[in-house]
Amino acid sequence: MNHFSCKFCGNALGEPFLKLGDQPLCNNYISQENSDVEEKYYPLDLYFCTECSLVQLAHSIPPTEIFSDYVYLSSYSESWLKHAKVYSEQVISRFNLDKNSFAIEIACNDGYLLKNFIKADIPILGIDPAKNASSLAKSLGIPMIEDYFNFDLSIKIIDQYRKANLIITNNVYAHVPDINDFTAAIKNLLNKNGVWTLEFPSLKNLIEFHQFDTIYHEHYYYFSLNSIKRIFDTHGFRIFDIERISTHGGSFRIFATHAENDSFSESDKLKTLLEEEISFGIQDINKYKEFNSKIEKIKNGLLYALNSAKAEKKTTIGYGAAGKANTLINSCGISKDLIKFIVDRNPLKQNKLMPGSRIPIYDTAMIKNSKPDYILILPWNLKDEIIESNRYVMDWGGKFIVPIPEIKIYSENK
Q: How does pLDDT run across 55-110, given as a tens digit for each residue?
């Protein structure tokens, strides 16, 4: 038996409450010339810490195996670009950021968000370890540090630049193997009246709406507000405001500052949302055990739908070669005989193969060329955007399948 400890509090972890089997890294897409190369598989098991309520993977894959050449680029989603623009305008206005301020985004990807700060003439710095994403950010005029953020790097940034008025960590906190070092580094880098904002998917939503495909190796943690607050309290941060946002199937945006900084008044929303989670059972191991059986039902239902389409000689393709797509496909054992191919707007993924399943990935132009009967929308959180931009498939009777939170089929009449 493996003996694992919680990455935050050090408490011994028991048995995993969810086992998704051994899987390849979800963003390690396979080139055609390497199609015969054997992939590495790692356990994808989820644990609940009974001491601090932090849900996590026990097996930690070295970040260098995941993020050195990262194929996810934020700029290929129109809705995500709009989300980033609205956020940028809000924080610039709310916190009176100007040419004398300094904003840092950790894991800034291709510069999709920080470019809004350039337009506002606000000094910025981007940090991202992925060479390809960093190069794209640099091409937008964003000063970049191509490295993993940690406490040592925070010291270097202060020496080279200064402390930050705003630190942005949107959808990166779950990607950090050493959560304590990372949080201490933010504490060090943020100036005395500074603000730290972070966005992260809601664990309550993951459980309630069966979002098991958002579980993959690069997400070391699955945060509830209660677990986040405990981490923040330990490291001397105070959450003063919080917002619900629709991204990633339901997320939170948190505004935090140093615990000793009383210049921001505290919203009542945090207490309400913390209590809402506790009433839901977010700190009860039995809530997680129930989750397992619900996931099996979804997997079996999806396989039934795909096999039925095949039996009727209907063609099914996938839309969106996202990381969550690989968890879903590999967990269900879906192969090329059920999904002919997957289309994606990102040229870094096109003409490659999905890890594990080896389903080929093509440009979205293949939709019109092949006229499929069904399109399985794999990034279900973008279903409205995807259906609207591909509504023409209904001209030949094509339908969309959305697998999460439950299987739904969208056609011209629905």
A: 999 987 777 676 555 555 565 667 788 999 999 999 999 999 999 999 999 999 99
β-pair type (221-222, 55-57): antiparallel
Dump strand ranges (E) for 24-170: 30-31, 42-48, 55-57, 103-106, 124-127, 144-145, 164-170
Task: Order the strands of the 18-23 sheet from edge to edge.
Answer: 18-23, 42-48, 55-57, 221-222
Q: Output the CA torsion 108→176→57→5 (10° steps).
A: -170
Contact (CB, 8 A) for 237 and 202: no
Is 386 in contact with 319 (CB distance < 8 Å)? yes
**Structure tokens belonging to residue 197:** 């904002």
Q: At what angle do helices 151-160 and 179-189 cross, to 10 degrees?
A: 20
Distance, CA of 210 to CA of 204 (rounded, Å): 10
Residue 31 neighbours by CB under 8 Å, 6+ apart: 352, 353
306: its two tokens: 């795909």
Give strand ranges (E) for 246-368.
Answer: 251-258, 316-319, 342-343, 352-353, 361-362
Cα dist. 62→155, 219, 279, 326 in Å? 23, 12, 36, 19
- In order of 45, 104, 259, 295, 333, the CA distances from 300 in angstroms are 20, 44, 48, 9, 10
Beta bridge partners of 254: 198, 242
CA distance 89 to 212: 33
How many C-beta atoms surround the C-beta of residue 91 within 10 A?
19
CA dist 304 and 298 (Å) reads 10
| Model-wide pTM > 0.85 | yes
Closest CA to 353 of 28, 20, 115, 40: 28
Tokens of 15: 């048995």
Token code pair at residue 273: 């949302």
pLDDT digits (tens, 9 = 90+) for 153-211: 999 999 999 999 999 999 999 999 999 999 999 999 999 999 999 999 999 999 999 99
Q: How far apart are CA 26 and CA 37, in angstroms?
A: 16
Q: Which residues make Cβ contacts (< 8 Å) with residue 300, sequence separation at least 6? A: none
And the tokens for 40? 């590495």
